[in-house]
Structures are given as structure tokens and as C-alpha cells.
């Protein structure tokens, strides 16, 4: 009887996209994902806009994140942020999960995650920390109550009448602009 040895090979999946080394956190990549990343890189190089389309389930999110994170790390003066918008909270959560996986992959490959800050944002009704506003729960009511406390015309009135209500958090926001958030991926 023959003895068979098995070795666990750790494959580091890095792809060259037009001279840019891109970490890809999965052990298989579709040709369409490579083409997608190539077109995205061309648009970033040209400092332009692009409209890319791929069918559902073909890895658009991980392709976009892999390419953009690599691009930001390589060319921080050329691109310093990605604003990723999505219609639903589950879609945002999927994006955050993919980004966390990508950060873990960088850590696995390089011994440290990328030095980047990522945060998922949502509507006021999900993120407001002013209890008198957030307790209203309905989006339009939360938005209206927030505007009554933070709109520039209301803040101007408050300078004349300090007894008018305000949002203490919003009023202190300018003082906290220099706060450095720690690198990482943060979710709702």
C-alpha cells in the first residue's frame, strides 16, 4: 500500500492589473472579474468616470474593492477615498463583509492589514444618537426633527435665542474634526 502525503499549500492570490498588484481574497477568479478590474483601473488612471455592469453573483463587489484598495495603497495622492453607495442595508453589510475579508487577506499576506479606514453609513434613522430624534423611528420624522436642530437657519436663530433646542452632538462636531479614527472596517 502506497503512503500519500498531503501538504497544505497556502496560495497567495495576487493579480497584475496593468502594472498594479491586486490582492484577491479568493482562490478562483472569473475572467470577467479581471476584465472588470482592468476597465476600472483605466478609469481611475484617467481620473474619469466609468459605468461597469456584470451579472448578479459574478463578484462585482470583491473585484471593485480589491482593485480600489490596491490603487489607494499604491497611489494615495491620486485616489484617497471610495464612496460605495447601495440601496439596502443587506447590500451595505455584504460590502463591509467583503472588505473585512480583503483586509484579513492583506494581513495574512503582508503580516498587517492595510492602513485604511472604512465605515458603513446609513440614514439618520439608523445612525442618529440624539435620543429625542432617533426615538421617532420613521425616516421622514427623524429627518424633520434633525433639520429643526441642525439647519443653518435654526443655528443662526439660536445665536439670538440660546433657549431654543439644539443637537449637542452636532454642535460639538466641529471640535472633533481633527479626531483620527483607527484603521479598520466599521459597520452599523
Helix content: 40-55%
- The radius of gyration computed from the alpha-carbon positions, rounded to a whole number of angstroms, is 22 Å
**DSSP summary, beta strand count:** 4
Strand content: 5-15%
The spatial strand order of the largest sheet comes to 1-2
Task: Catalogue the unreliable spans.
Answer: 4-9
Largest sheet: 2 strands, antiparallel
Strand and helix order:
EEHHHEHHHHHE
GO molecular function, one term: ATP binding
Pfam family, one: DEAD_2
Protein name: Helicase ATP-binding domain-containing protein
Organism: Litomosoides sigmodontis (Filarial nematode worm)
Textual characterization of the structure:
With 188 residues, this protein is mainly α. The protein folds into two domains: 14-120; 124-175, no CATH class. The protein is 45% helix and 7% strand. It has eight helices and four strands; from the N terminus they run ββαααβαααααβ. The chain has helices spanning 31-45, 60-74, 89-110, 124-127, 131-134, 139-150, 152-160, 168-171; strands at residues 14-17, 20-23, 117-119, 184-186. Strands 1-2 form a two-stranded antiparallel ribbon. Strands 3-4 form a two-stranded parallel sheet. Strand 1 (14-17) and strand 2 form a beta hairpin. Helix 2 crosses helix 3 (89-110). The longest helix has 22 residues, at 89-110. The radius of gyration is 22 Å and the shape is elongated. It starts with 13 loop residues before the first strand and ends with a strand.
Amino acid at each position: 500500500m502506497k503512503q500519500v502525503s498531503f501538504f497544505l499549500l497556502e496560495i497567495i492570490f495576487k493579480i497584475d492589473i496593468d502594472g498594479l498588484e491586486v490582492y484577491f481574497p479568493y482562490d478562483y477568479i472569473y475572467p470577467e472579474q479581471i476584465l472588470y478590474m482592468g476597465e476600472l483601473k483605466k478609469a481611475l488612471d484617467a481620473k474619469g468616470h466609468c459605468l461597469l455592469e456584470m451579472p448578479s453573483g459574478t463578484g462585482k463587489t470583491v473585484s471593485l474593492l480589491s482593485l480600489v484598495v490596491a490603487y489607494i495603497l499604491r497611489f494615495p495622492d491620486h485616489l484617497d477615498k471610495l464612496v460605495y453607495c447601495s440601496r439596502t442595508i443587506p447590500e451595505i453589510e455584504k460590502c463591509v463583509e467583503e472588505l473585512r475579508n480583503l483586509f484579513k487577506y492583506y494581513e495574512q499576506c503582508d503580516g498587517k492589514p492595510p492602513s485604511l479606514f472604512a465605515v458603513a453609513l446609513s440614514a439618520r434613522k439608523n445612525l442618529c444618537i440624539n435620543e429625542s430624534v432617533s426615538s421617532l423611528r420613521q425616516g421622514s420624522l427623524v429627518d424633520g426633527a434633525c433639520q429643526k436642530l441642525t439647519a443653518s437657519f435654526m443655528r443662526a436663530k439660536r445665536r439670538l435665542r440660546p433657549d431654543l433646542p439644539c443637537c449637542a452632538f452636532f454642535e460639538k462636531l466641529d471640535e472633533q474634526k481633527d479626531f483620527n479614527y483607527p484603521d479598520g472596517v466599521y459597520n452599523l
